[in-house]
Design brief:
With 293 residues, this protein is of the alpha+beta class. It contains six helices and seven strands. The mean pLDDT is 92. InterPro entries: Alkaline_phosphatase_core_sf, Sulfatase_N.
Amino acid sequence: LMNHYSVNNYNNPTPKGFDYQDQLVDPYTYVYNTAVFSTNGQAPYYYKDAYQTDIIHAKTRAALKRIQDQDDPFFLWIAPMAPHGEFIIGEGGQITTRPAVPAARHAHLFKDVKIPRKPNFNPDKQSKTASYWKHLEKLNSTLIEDFDEAYRNRLRALQAVDEIVGSVFEELAKSGELENTYVFYSADNGYHLGQHRAYPGKTTNLEEDINVPFIVRGPGVSKGQVSDLVSSHHDLASTFIALAGGDKHVPSWVDGGVIPLTKELTRHPKPISKESFAVEFWGFSIMPEGYSD
């Protein structure tokens, strides 16, 4: 939603639809130890030598305290960049990349953890997969160790995200709003690391790329319930609005159905589709000669 805002166009246009917004701006969005934010379309503020997820953590606590001083219901969206890989844009636009960077306090964790060695991880044979993957060479031990370390760094970087989650519940409990609030935990994409011999990435229709966490806590949501229903992020807006009792405000052209999180939502007139769901990737197109985009 906020992609491509930068230190040059942070207020052009100012994001609409929020009472308060505090967003990362390029070219620092994917830099872990220099966090740069624009607040309500104001000039970017630089937090030099500060771990980005920790700044988001502090802003989350402040936002929850500010919101809870009001009587109205609220919607708060928290979007840490971690455990995304780091992109550093240098002179001439040259981009340097590296795996996720953990906070110093978490850098020692998970030393013996490896990518789960499921049957599709660097298999000896690629017979049961799409033709594209069949031609990939088997990964050597050096690459596998590099991928394992990238996996460990993703887990390490997620520890600071876990601390944010803990603070959300702590602040809601302190204010007495925990049992009256829906909390959603998800991600915008998955990530493959060595499955089907593939190099790290997220832009395929592999299970590892399209199956993301989706955890919900709130009134009427059964504790410990696990569902195998297929939904997508297109369904989130409709679900949020249904939980808030705002269906009458939703135009008929809005995509997505309502995920049956509660007994009431199982009877909703606009349920999620049981026939199809969307898998999309934002990228660059290469048009054949004679065509244009």
